[in-house]
Amino acid sequence: MASAVVAAGILLFFTLDGPVRLQADVVAGLDEQPTLTLPDGSTVQLDSASAIAVTFDATRRDVRLLRGEAYFRVVADAGRPFTVQAAGGSSTALGTEFDVRLMAEGAEVGVMQHAVRVVAPVSGGPAQEATLREGQQVVYGSDGRLGAIRGADPAAIAAWRGGTLVVENATLASVVERLGRRTRTRIVIATDTLARRRISGSFDISDPLAALTVLERTLGIGSTRLGGLVIVLHS
After folding, report:
1. Domain segments of the chain: what residues?
2. String of DSSP letters for 70-121
């Protein structure tokens, strides 16, 4: 019986999001996109179900993105760099507004104003880094790979803040992950091949399940709904 109680406690801990909440200073709810003022006057807006941990002291301003996506407006302070840690890499503001999103394989950084220095995680060699300018994006992997810098519409990068998801040549898996943070219904992709399908478009994410239906029609795929708990996408 004691073992059963312990197992139930562990299950409850994970069900109630314990691992993230133990680390986080702020966790956004499913239907929330809160904007927070940090100790230095900078602001951060969290996307739905996103989480951050904040460490500010006399020499540094560090934010760890633990889950989801966040949009930053940074107040200049030459003596204290403002750095966002995500997926083992870092993005340091050079007087700017920028967006950071965690993905299964790493993180994506987009710049709305000024510039950001991005450093990919070190993996058995020297760190790869790049400086992004306004209207640029880059993806880095948790394995240390830094992708090519590409142009992006600044308004599209942060369109989620207004309830719209704009994607260009994104995988179905990445789009589903972003929709999944807005609903308690679990969305599962049946095969890796389907998960890697590419899509471009604009989706109203104020109703994530309706957006999923549009996505299905766009790709010509089917789905199986298991009550209101699980949706399985398949060819």
Report:
1. 23-152, 163-235
2. EEEE----TTS-EEEEETTEEEEESS-EEEEEEETTEEEEEEEESEEEEEPP
Q: pLDDT averaged over the chain?
A: 90
Instruction: Give the pLDDT band (50/70/90) at residue 17.
Output: low
The rounded distance, in Å, linking the Cα atoms of 232 and 190 is 6
Query: 163-235, what's its fold?
Result: Phage tail protein beta-alpha-beta fold (3.55.50)
Across 115-133, b (16+ Cβ under 10 Å) vs e yields bbbbbbbeeeeeebebebe
| Global pTM value | 0.87
Closest CA to 165 of 234, 218, 228: 218
83 contacts 92 by C-beta, under 8 angstroms: yes
pLDDT band at 18 (very low <50, low <70, confident <90, very high): low
Residue 30 corresponds to which tokens in the numbers above? 């499913």
Amino acid residing at 5: V
pLDDT in tens, 109-163: 999 999 999 999 877 777 899 999 999 999 999 888 999 999 999 999 999 999 9
Q: Is the dihedral of CA 188, 67, 48, 198 positive or negative?
A: negative
CA dist 137 and 109 (Å) reads 6
- Check if CATH label 2.60.120.1440 holds for domain 23-152: yes
Q: Distance of CA 65 to CAs 37, 90, 91, Å?
A: 16, 10, 11
Q: At what angle do helices 208-219 and 172-180 cross, to 10 degrees?
A: 160
CA–CA distance, 55 with 73 (Å, rounded to integer): 17
Query: What pLDDT sits at residue 11?
Result: 37
